[in-house]
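Lab notebook, bench 4. Still working through the backlog of constructs that have no structural model yet. Next entry is a single chain of 308 residues. Request: give me the structure tokens for it.
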Amino acid sequence: MNKSIIASGIVSLLLVEFFAPAAETSAPVVSAQATATVVVRASQRYKVAVCDWMILKRQKLGAFQLTKDIGADGVEVDMGSLGQRDTFENQLTNADACRPFLDKARELGLEIPSLAMSGFYAQSFAERATVPRMVQDTIDTMKLMNVKIAFLPLGVNGDLVKHPKLRPAIVERLTAAGKQAEKAGVIIGIETALPAAEEVKLLDEIGSPAIKSYFNFANALQNGRDLHAELRTLGKDHICQIHASNEDGVWLQNDPKIDLPKVKHTLDEMGWSGWLVIERSRDAKDARNVKKNFGANATYLKSVFHSK
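Model written out:
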């Protein structure tokens, strides 16, 4: 792949090449020219993304232009709704289906930092019979899309605080998922309801380098936990990505529960770097105004995290 420096009106830009799909897969592989290789700032330690399902563009090509208009650096693409299906309602199952998404990302200078299994917010990871298939379908799409991280929320039906009896089943399934992810060279980031110290114990019990924490500000804040202490307890090596928003109500800049400059200081001290993905923090008075809400939050995140 050509990695020469590109000048397109932006100074100091670098092509970042995502990992190649694993050799074991027999699925068609997207050509190098159509990969999600994009132009980003070489010195940018933190990048900001939005969730396609939260901007009302789940697996829609229009999510990329809207993300560009919002001012984010990338979009977290969902695997599709789940309901009672055997697997996700995923349209991105082959190279031809993925190519327009990858081309559009490259055209607009955006990235796809992760895929999301948001269907597990409402469905039970511990109890659904076809979970191994769902995980493998996600990994297969990650390979096609050249994405390294998948988001897996354990959700209300996998809440280990309220349903501790599910822990053995969840550990067993995440251990198996870890083996699938290790084989493919990808990471599955889990969101749990556990305090950070307990989540570290869960990750240690699973024992896979491919299963990490996908930290969510809202989980700590809504449960009255110290956001900064939670981040430090998990540590940089356990956190693969962050949902950097709170519950809906006010924008991040107006949220008295979040001191974002202090969060940046905490992450800086930890030595962490990566994607900050906006999920919520919408103005309750105008919650469906996507561009206004996500644009305000993206602008504020960048003003804090892109400052020196």
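Notes after review: The longest strand covers residues 46-51. The radius of gyration is 18 Å. Flag for follow-up if needed.
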